[in-house]
Amino acid sequence: MTSPDIMKDKPFDDFLLTQSVFEPFGLIVLYLVLVTKIGPNFMKNREPMQLKPVMVLYNLFQIFSNVFIVILGFPDLKSVSILCTITSRDSFSIVTLHHKYVLLKLFDFLETGIFILRKKDKQVSFLHVFHHIGVFLMSWIGLKYSPGGPNYLSACINCLVHAIMYCYYLQSMWTNQKHQWWKKYITVLQVGGNSFILLNYVIHLLNPFCSFPKWILVINLVYMLVILYLFGVFYKKSYVKSEM
């Protein structure tokens, strides 16, 4: 099993958020304090804020940013194999795109703040918060210790799913909830994308000839299993029971 210290490479310590483990974990702690304490207390005796222009800009930014990463990442996908893709520290394009992905996952935290300011407390669920923290942390670990590899394919799949998801969010701002027939299929798409990502990690882990760090594969596998379970519970609660 490869040690994180061995995998570190000084040239990449110049990237934002990669100089110390205290950076991502500090941001995660700050995020948790803001969304569980400061934000709710600030809005406790206030009316929900009307943030439609902000939401439009946020959704548009997410759509274009996720599509941008998918387009930039597409040429390098030819070097990706579901059987085994090793670390790509020598590929500047892969490493820099991986870094952009990490920053985008950090930007995702803003979504929770918008929910809180609009007093959409039900949307600030455990699944929502855990998912945001998990994706950011998993992507950061990949960038810091072993950029590229199966994480690169995961990032492209995640961005493709999120581009479609934010198109739905943008469209839903002007559509009656009853007419949003494709709402549940967004969850199906998320489950499908995460299932493929999980399969990718399983194959890498079981391949005895694959040199990608096993410890990174294991923590990603654990995270993916938990998130798939949570998505399954959400789908059953939101759609299966409501159709009975």
Summarize the structure in words.
The protein has helices at residues 4-7, 22-43, 52-73, 92-107, 109-117, 126-145, 150-172, 183-206, 214-240. The protein is mostly helical. It has one domain (17-243). The longest helix is centred in the last third of the chain and has 27 residues, at 214-240. The chain is globular, with a radius of gyration of 19 Å. The termini are far apart. Mean pLDDT is 89; it is low at 1-10.
Task: List its salient traits.
244 residues; mainly alpha; 68% helix; EC 2.3.1.199; transmembrane helix
CA gyration radius, whole angstroms = 19 Å
What's the count of strands? 0
Largest sheet: none
Shape: globular
**Derived structural class:** mainly alpha
Mean of all residue-level pLDDT scores: 89
Compute the number of structural domains.
1
Topology:
Layout: H1 4-7, H2 22-43, H3 52-73, H4 92-107, H5 109-117, H6 126-145, H7 150-172, H8 183-206, H9 214-240
Helix pairs in contact: 2-5, 2-6, 3-4, 3-7, 4-6, 6-9, 7-8, 8-9
Short summary of the structure?
This protein is mainly alpha-helical. It has nine helices and no strands. Helix 4 runs antiparallel to helix 6 (126-145) and helix 6 (126-145) packs antiparallel against helix 9 (214-240).
